[in-house]
Amino acid sequence: MRVHVADHPLITHKLTVLRDENTPSPTFRALTEELVTLLAYEATRDVRVEEVTIQTPVTQTTGVAISEPRPLVVPILRAGLGMLEGMVKLMPSAEVGFLGMVRNEETLEPSVYAERLPDDLSNRQCFVLDPMLATGGSLLSAIEYLFARGAQDVTCVCILAAPEGLAAIEKAVEGRDVTIVLGALDEKLNEHGYIVPGLGDAGDRLYGTV
Ligand code: PRP
Ligand code: URA
After folding, report:
1. Which ligand is the nearest neighbour of the Cα of 135?
2. Which domains does the chain have, with CATH numbers?
3. Binding site, residues?
4. Is 44 a catalytic residue?
5. In this structure, which of 26, 83, 97, 203 has its CB flanked by the most CB atoms within 10 Å?
6. Cα 192 to averaged position of ligand 1 atoms, centre (Å)
7. Alpha-carbon separation of residue 208 from 27, 86, 125, 129, 204 (angstroms)
8. Is any ligand 2 atom within 6 A of the Cβ of residue 132?
C-alpha cells in the first residue's frame, strides 16, 4: 500500500480553517471542495492514459487521453459527497458510482445502506472519496467491495486519517494495489473513535446537522 501525505502550505492553511469549530457549513463545504481538487492532482498521478494523435493549427502531434474503461470515482455517502465536485472538476470524464455507508457510533462497525456501482469493475481504476479515515472500517469495506467486483486498483482520497486506521488498512490490503492520499495524518483516535485533533463529524459539519 502506498501512502501520500500532502505537504503544501496552501493545503495546511485550508485544513486549519476546516478544523476550526467556528467555521460555518457553507465555508466548510467550499474548503472541502478546494482541498479535494488539490489532493486529486496527486491522487490521479498514475491515471492510465493512451497516446493520441491530434492536429494543432500548425502541425500534427501526439499527446495523451485518459484510457478506456474510464476511471470510476466513488464518494462514500454521506460525507464523501462533499468531495465529489472537487474531484470531477479535475477529471470530468470519470464515471461516478455511489456507496452509502454508516458507522455504528457504539460498536464503530460500518454497514452499507446504498450501492449504485457498475456490476463489473474489471480493469477499472477506482478513486474512493471519504474525508475521514478513523478506525478505517468504512474505507476498508469500500475497498473490499470494489476489489470483489474486479477493480484493478483503488486510490482513496481522505482529508484526515488516524494512524490506527491507516495501519489497520495497510495490514488488511497487503499485496493489493491500494494508494491512500491524505491532507494530513493526525495524532490518534480518541475513546469514541474520533480523530484527534480532527475536525469533528465531517458529515454533520458539511450538511449542517450540528
Ligand atoms: C464517517 C466518515 C467515514 C467514517 C469513518 O461517516 O465519513 O465514512 O465515519 O470512520 P471509520 O474509519 O471508523 O469507519 P459516518 O458513518 O459518520 O457517516 P456520514 O458520512 O453519513 O456522516
Ligand atoms: N467520522 C467523522 O466524521 N469524524 C471522525 O473524527 C471520525 C469518524
Report:
1. 1
2. 2-207 (3.40.50.2020)
3. 78, 103, 130-138, 195, 200-202
4. no
5. 83
6. 13
7. 11, 19, 32, 20, 5
8. yes
Look at the chain and count its residues.
Answer: 210
CA distance 82 to 131: 8
Does the complex come out with an ipTM higher than 0.95? yes
Atom index in ligand 2 nearest the CA of residue 205 equals 3
**Look-up: residue for cell 470483489?**
148
> What residues contact 90, with CB distance under 8 A and at least 6 apart?
37, 40, 41, 44
204 is catalytic: yes
Query: Does the annotation mark 7 as catalytic?
Result: no
Q: How far apart are CA 44 and CA 55, in angstroms?
A: 26
pLDDT in tens, 76-119: 999 999 999 999 999 999 999 999 999 898 999 999 999 999 99
Would you state the pLDDT for residue 208? 83
